[in-house]
Amino acid sequence: MIFDSLHHKSRVWVYISSKPLTSYTKNKITCSFNDFKSSWKSHGEQLEGNLKFLKEKILILGVQYLGSPMCGRSVDAHLRWINEINNDLDLDFLNRNNVAFSLKGNITIYHFNELDKLVKNGTLNESTTYINSFITTNSEKIQLPFGESPFAEKYFSE
């Protein structure tokens, strides 16, 4: 589980930053999130949200499972908050072309279009740790071998 304090079916989003998140930036994001979550609601109910950082490039946002899907307005609200963070701190969390890997203990970000070349030259292989930005629930693995990623079939099937 990503967040011990949230139900295993809780909704989770993973955002990748191509720029390092400094202590200052993380603090600004945390303070902003605390302000945001005080008014974050779905179907009129207060949402219990949480966030964490994976090293210096990954922001993970979770919201407690309520038993029913979140309303569209609450999802839109969180995306507006992410967009505000992007603009205020000059980040690119909404760039879905960013793909993250853990290489030698560091998070490394590549553009999606680079993956073919990186697999061919051996920089990435089936056992390289992939940061799974496609997860949607708290019970899913955020780090897994690239060979088990959503991209596995494209790069490793015969």
> Which stretches are low in confidence, meaning pLDDT under 50 for 5 or more residues running?
none
Mean pLDDT: 95
Count of discrete alpha- or pi-helical segments spanning 4 or more residues = 4
Biggest β-sheet: count, sense, barrel? 4 strands, antiparallel
Gyration radius (Cα, Å) is 16 Å
- Spatially, the strands of the biggest sheet line up as 7-6-8-9
Order of helices and strands: EHEEEEHEEHEEH
Gross morphology is globular
Tally of extended strands?
A: 9
Portion in strands: 25-35%
Helix content: 25-40%
From the N-terminal CA to the C-terminal CA, the straight-line distance is 33 Å
Q: Helix- and strand-based class? A: alpha+beta
Question: Would you write up a description of this structure?
Answer:
- By secondary structure, the protein is of the alpha+beta class.
- Helices cover 28% and strands 25% of the residues.
- It contains four helices and nine strands; from the N terminus they run E-H-E-E-E-E-H-E-E-H-E-E-H.
- The strands form three sheets. It has a four-stranded antiparallel β-sheet with strand order 7-6-8-9, with no helix packed on it. A three-stranded antiparallel β-sheet has the order 1-5-4, with helices on one face.
- A hairpin with a 2-residue loop joins strand 2 (41-42) and strand 3.
- Helix 1 packs antiparallel against helix 2.
Which secondary structure elements does this structure contain, and how are they paired or packed?
Elements: E1 11-16, H1 23-37, E2 41-42, E3 45-46, E4 49-54, E5 58-63, H2 72-89, E6 98-103, E7 106-111, H3 115-120, E8 129-131, E9 143-145, H4 152-156
Antiparallel strand pairs: 1-5, 2-3, 4-5, 6-7, 6-8, 8-9
